[in-house]
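Narrative of accomplishments. A recurring question from our advisory board has been how the design workflow behaves on a single, concrete structure rather than in aggregate. To address it, we present the structure tokens for one chain from the evaluation set, followed by the sequence designed for it. No filtering or post-editing was applied between the two.
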């Protein structure tokens, strides 16, 4: 038995089933220590290299790596923190900053849009003589049904005024009346075609077609057929005359016609009024039959001086909305003249912008404010506009 001497080396291995500990000790009385036994065994078993191969290094074969292999190798390698030393740039001197500010002029803000143009798409497929007005496209918003739906009354194909006049005369000749023929003709012709029929009937027979209808028809049916014989301007003029004639006034008729017509239409109505009622003036008749603030706004509308442009100033609309708020809800009492001035003279595009801004200022819409501040026929007129 040998006594334990100095430990020269030790190795530890393991597998699934066992542990292996190899310890190399110094042998007493042995010569000078050489390499460990295990290393010598490895050197003896390793193949010897030729002298030509001693200086050359073995070249490893390079295989193309894929993304999966790179991820696998990266996962095996231990995590290493990388510290990147940022390069600090020298701060510019004050002189350089002053030079830059002098070289570069200060940036100016782009001007905000000042004027806005309201675009209204209009597609009218009907007899435009019903709406005789060169600027009808600007106010199609007042007749939305025309812009949204295709009309049923279109120019009658193969129109022949003399033939229609002959059929109407036969329908009213003798005992009884052929109402069906009258409806087929007067209800299926456009305004311009009906105007030609009235003129042609008087030319052929020397009689007024409207008087012939009055002798054969009655009640609401006659009122409807009579209205179809007039041009739009003449029909409005006759309705306005009925509204102010005699005792009392039909304010609803005044509001409906004057608040919804364009400048050109109002001028044509005034001319037709004098033509139908010789020696009379529409404005004078309205003044004599109305009173107060309602009279003022009716007279303003009869001037036919409303701005009809589609371009408006958004900032001005905001200021006018604030003025309306101060003239109405904000203070005790109401300044009706401010509402009159705006609603009777400004374009409908501008008024729509004012109403939007008014809702932002007062937290309530313009209709609610008018209902609170106005009353009677004046309130109806303001709401109609």
């Amino acid at each position: 038995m040998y006594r334990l001497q100095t430990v020269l080396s030790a190795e530890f291995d393991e597998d699934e089933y066992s542990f292996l500990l190899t310890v190399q000790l110094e042998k007493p009385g042995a010569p000078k220590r050489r390499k460990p036994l295990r290393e010598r065994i490895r050197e003896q078993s390793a193949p010897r290299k030729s002298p030509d191969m001693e200086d050359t290094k073995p070249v490893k074969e390079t295989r193309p790596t894929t993304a999966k292999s790179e991820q696998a190798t990266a996962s095996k390698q231990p995590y290493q923190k990388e510290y990147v030393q940022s390069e600090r740039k020298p701060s510019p001197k004050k002189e350089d900053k002053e030079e830059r500010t002098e070289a570069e002029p200060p940036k100016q803000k782009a001007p905000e849009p000042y004027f806005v143009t309201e675009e209204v798409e209009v597609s009218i497929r009907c007899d435009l003589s019903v709406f005789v007005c060169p600027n009808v496209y600007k106010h199609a918003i007042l007749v939305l049904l025309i812009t949204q739906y295709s009309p049923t009354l279109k120019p009658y194909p193969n129109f022949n005024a003399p033939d229609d006049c002959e059929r109407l005369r036969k329908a009213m000749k003798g005992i009884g009346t052929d109402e069906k023929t009258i409806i087929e003709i007067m209800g299926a012709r456009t305004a311009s075609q009906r105007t030609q029929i009235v003129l042609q009937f008087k030319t052929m027979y020397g009689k007024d077609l409207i008087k012939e209808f009055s002798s054969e028809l009655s009640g609401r049916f006659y009122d409807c057929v009579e209205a179809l014989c007039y041009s739009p301007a003449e029909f409005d003029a006759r309705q306005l005359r009925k509204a102010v004639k005699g005792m009392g006034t039909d304010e609803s008729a005044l509001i409906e016609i004057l608040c919804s017509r364009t400048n050109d239409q109002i001028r044509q109505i005034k001319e037709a009024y004098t033509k139908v009622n010789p020696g009379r003036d529409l404005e004078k008749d309205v003044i004599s039959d109305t009173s107060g603030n309602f009279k003022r706004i009716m007279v303003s509308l009869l001037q036919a001086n409303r701005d009809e442009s589609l371009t408006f100033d958004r900032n001005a609309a905001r200021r006018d909305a604030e003025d309306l708020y101060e003239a109405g809800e904000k203070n005790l009492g109401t300044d009706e003249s401010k509402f009159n001035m705006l609603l009777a003279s400004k374009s409908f595009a501008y008024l729509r912008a004012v109403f939007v801004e008014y809702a932002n200022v007062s937290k309530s819409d313009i209709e609610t404010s008018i209902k609170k501040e106005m009353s009677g026929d004046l309130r109806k007129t303001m709401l109609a506009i």
